[in-house]
Each structure stands twice: as C-alpha cells, then as structure tokens.
Amino acid sequence: MIYFDNAATTRPSAAALEKAARFNGSEFFNSSALYRGGLKNAAELNIARDFLLKSLGVSSSEYEAVFTSCGSESDNMAIFGAVKRGVFVTDKGEHAAVYKSFCELKSRKLQTEFIDLNRDGSVSEEKLLGFVQGVGADFVSIVHVNNETGAVNDINKIADKLKKINQKIIFHSDGVQAYGKLPVRLSKSVDLYSVSAHKVNGLKGTGALIKKRKLNVSPLIFGGGQESGLRSGTENIFGIKVFEYAAAEKLERINENYAAVSEINRYLRNALDKRYVKILSSEAASPYILSVSVPGFRGEVVMHALEDEDIIVGNGSACSSRNRYSRVMESCGYSKQELDGVIRLSFSADNTLEEAKIFAEKFNGICKRFKGVI
C-alpha cells in the first residue's frame, strides 16, 4: 500500500510504542497516586512536558504544557478558556476545530470576525492587521500550517505585529500540521499553541496545549484537578510517552525528513500530467501537503479509483470530508469545477521517491481514463 494521507493521521512509530510499552505493563500506575509507582509516573509526565516545551524553544519558567486528548480539544480549551468576552478574530482557512468553535462563539452573540485568505490559503495579513487596528481584538487564532493547502503562516511575525497594536491581545495558533515537520521556535508573542500526537507518528487520543503560565485559562473538563486543574481526568501516560518518543524521533531528523519529503513533493509537481491536473498548493507551502485538482471530476471518485490501485489519498480535511466542497478551498477562490476535483496528498518521512513514481504513473493513467483519452 502507498499511503499519502499523513495529514489525516500517521502510522504509529514502532520504536516509540516499544519504548513506552512499560507504561501499559509493569508501570501502569495512575500518575495521581501517592505511592512510589504513581509518583514515578507523575515525574515521567513532567519529563514529557519539559520535552515539548524545549522542542518549541520556550522555557518551563514562562510556559507550561497541558496534556489533552487531541488537537481539537487543545484548540477548544484555548478558544473557550482564555477569553470570555470581547472581539474574537480568526481566518477562513482554519481547521474545523477552530472554525466551528468560532461559529459557536458567534451563536452565543459574541463578536467574531473571519479574515479572508490569500489564494494559497494563508491569511491575508493586511486584512487581519487592518481589522484589528480599526475594530480591535481580544483573542486571535491563526493556523500555523493550513491543513488543506499546506500554506505556512508566519505566526511569530503575525503575533508580534498584533501585540504592537495591542499588547493585551491573546494570540493562539493551531500548530498540528507544523509541529515535528517544520522547525518551530515560538515567539514570546504566541500565548497558546496546539499540538497533536497522531500527526507525528504518535497515537490518536493524545495532544497538548502549550500556554503561557501567567495566562489564566478556564478548564473545559472538571473533576479530579489533574493537569494543574486545567484538564481533569486520569492522564493517558502511555499515549503521552509515545507522543514524547515519537516526536523526539521526528525532531532528531527534522532536516533530513524535510529534504526527503521536499524531493517527493517536487517530483510530483513535475510528474503529474498538467493536461488533466491542476496544482493548487503554492511552491512556498509546507512540502508535507500537496493539494491538486482534476477539474471536471469528483475528487472522491478519483480517490476511490486510486484506492482500487492500493493507493490511499485524501480529498480534503478528514474532519470536513462530508461536505461536497471544501470550505477552505472555496475561500481561496477556486471555481466549482476545480473544487469538485480536489485531492490532497500528504507525506511523511516513511514515504519514498519510488512510491511517488508509482503514484504519478497510476494517477496520470486514471486521469486519462476518466477523460476518455486513448
């Protein structure tokens, strides 16, 4: 099988699973327990927290890591927990976890604004800054890497500019498609940052919200007061340690992985037959995501034709795949015909150039067949 849907989820790291296996075996203890095994596991959680903070270039004296069940929960905690009233600003290209949360804020009669996108799926900084200068903002959330086009927003620069307008603005970014793939060093202007384990060869069901210690965030989940009272519920120590170990693998080879994935991305940009295929992702996008369109045909039909060849791809965000047109791609200004034919390829370091060559041959053949070319 050729698997090109890594933006949806990645294969768990066998090495990370093996290394963390003891937390599902002899060291299964609840990290809130006060006997030796529980205290030891609590210390292991703190090791994982410190690892995440260090990997993002922030200090444990200024930031803390709150473990959650996923990136979506981390986004929700940031959006609903950091600010209770005021002006909430995001963009039209956000993952559903942010976009739908802002829709909920709007339904609660809070003032929300969705900023337009550039053609590549990045936020229009000019419109964002113009809105904030004119109307103001209390909370701003801008995705780091667009999960459908791969467009990269310079969140440090954006956050710095926003803080110059108003130092009290709370800035959040969904970093799920950036962490472990692009070198990330957070500016002190970034208050909140969401990450997820299963995008970097960890397990589904584990994520984290990186937050400034001085920032008050209200919990979404109440109970035993775990995670410093911010996220009650017994911590998933096995999933958290797999996250730590898998992310460490990624970060140790981040430059090599980036180069290898870039080669695959470049090859496919050149190898896909432009008579039938339109490249949608910009050259400046993250190489881990390449969105294309087969205008005139349903992307879902092409996706299933590839699946018959034992090739797995996506046709947009897995969290919004029930809609005919991608909200994000539609906001980029593509035609209905282009929107119908969208296919998202997303890569990992496990993919090879040989797989890309096989994919291009099969994909071009399917396009020819669909177009009736003999």
Task: Give a structural overview.
The chain is of the alpha/beta class. The protein has helices at 14-20, 36-55, 71-81, 96-107, 125-134, 155-165, 237-252, 254-271, 299-308, 327-331, 336-340, 353-371; strands spanning 2-4, 63-68, 87-91, 111-115, 139-141, 170-174, 192-196, 207-212, 278-279, 289-293, 311-313, 342-346. Helix 1 crosses helix 7 and helix 2 (36-55) packs parallel to helix 7. It starts with a strand and ends with a helix.
Please render the helix and strand layout as text.
Elements (H helix, E strand, L loop, with lengths): L1 E3 L9 H7 L15 H20 L7 E6 L2 H11 L5 E5 L4 H12 L3 E5 L9 H10 L4 E3 L13 H11 L4 E5 L17 E5 L10 E6 L24 H16 L1 H18 L6 E2 L9 E5 L5 H10 L2 E3 L13 H5 L4 H5 L1 E5 L6 H19 L3
Parallel strand pairs: 1-11, 3-4, 3-5, 5-6, 6-7
Antiparallel strand pairs: 2-8, 7-8, 9-10, 10-12
Tell me roughly what share of residues is in helical segments.
Answer: 25-40%
Helix/strand class? alpha/beta
- State the helix count: 12
Oligomer: single chain
Arithmetic mean of pLDDT: 95
The SSE order reads EHHEHEHEHEHEEEHHEEHEHHEH
Ranges where pLDDT stays below 50 over 5 or more residues in a row are none
Characterize the largest beta sheet: strand count, sense, and whether it forms a barrel.
Answer: 7 strands, mixed
CA radius of gyration: 21 Å
Strand order of the largest sheet: 2-8-7-6-5-3-4
Secondary structure tally: strands? 12
Instruction: Determine the strand fraction and express it as a percent band.
Output: 5-15%
Q: Span from first to last CA?
A: 27 Å
Tertiary shape: globular
